[in-house]
């Protein structure tokens, strides 16, 4: 009850854009869209490259209650240590991007609307870099990167799914969440159905997003920068099977011309939301999709597990290990 009361007093009905501090090697700009400006972060490679050794750009996409800055640590490792140009987008209502307002966010911001933001970011990166990018999405953002490929809205150099909503939908994730938090529905009623009720207190954020080894201070800082509310229609649009893996694979460069498809599926060993059984099933379905479409044993579908990490493996105490797992995959491209 104490957590529910504390959470009630933390709930807000306005969500002004917030400027998270950035390290010197990461800059902030904006992508223009019909609705408003979207925050785009850029981490420049530590060394200048020429046409012969230029590496593929990576575009990171956050999940629910995320923002572009959840990727700062991984962007730093990839750009400064491994020389990859890295970008991260804040979708509408997140980070320093424009806020549509409480009711518009909750009831009018659909999965399709969020995908419009993502497509705008993809086009911006392609213009800046002069080539297709690697798409990397976390949680609901991982569902979205699959969605834009499935609907032929973009073409990717490679695909990275980080504790992502599976291609077969998010119902298993919500089942895990309800088991993790038995007071979920009761607290939500007490909080007048406010969408941030399940994450209204740092202890709830810590339990859902991080490992037991992660200090509570990390969850407290993470909570401070979270959006004050979230769309209920965005993740809801991915509740059941929402993409066909064959269409997703067909829009990864190399997938249709005899080349080796490249998909990395990343998991946190202690993720209580996107549990290992869901991640393993995702990998199995993508491998089956490659086998059916290419008839090849050289499937190009890889899976990594970060030992001890929770759902936000890019922010948990094991984040450097996860970053190196991703870097090893990218180097093989």
Topology (SSEs and partners):
Layout: H1 2-10, E1 26-31, E2 38-43, E3 58-61, H2 72-81, E4 86-89, H3 102-108, H4 111-129, E5 134-138, H5 140-150, E6 158-162, H6 171-180, H7 184-190, H8 202-209, H9 216-225, H10 245-250, E7 263-268, H11 276-294, E8 301-306, H12 319-331
Parallel strand pairs: 3-4, 3-5, 5-6, 6-7, 7-8
Antiparallel strand pairs: 1-2, 2-4
Explained architecture:
There is one protein chain. Strands 1-2-4-3-5-6-7-8 form an 8-stranded mixed β-sheet, sandwiched between helices. With 333 residues, the chain is an alpha/beta fold. The protein has one domain (21-179, 231-331): Alpha/Beta hydrolase fold, catalytic domain (Rossmann fold, 3-Layer(aba) Sandwich). Helix 2 packs across helix 12, helix 4 (111-129) packs across helix 5 (140-150) and helix 8 packs across helix 9. It starts with a helix and ends with a helix. Helix 2 links the parallel strand 3 (58-61) and strand 4 (86-89). It has helices spanning 2-10, 72-81, 102-108, 111-129, 140-150, 171-180, 184-190, 202-209, 216-225, 245-250, 276-294, 319-331; strands spanning 26-31, 38-43, 58-61, 86-89, 134-138, 158-162, 263-268, 301-306. Helix content is 39%, strand content 13%.
Q: How many individual β-strands?
A: 8
Average pLDDT for all residues: 91
The Rg value, from CA coordinates, equals 19 Å
Order of helix and strand elements from N to C terminus = HEEEHEHHEHEHHHHHEHEH
The chain-level structural class is alpha/beta
Shape: globular
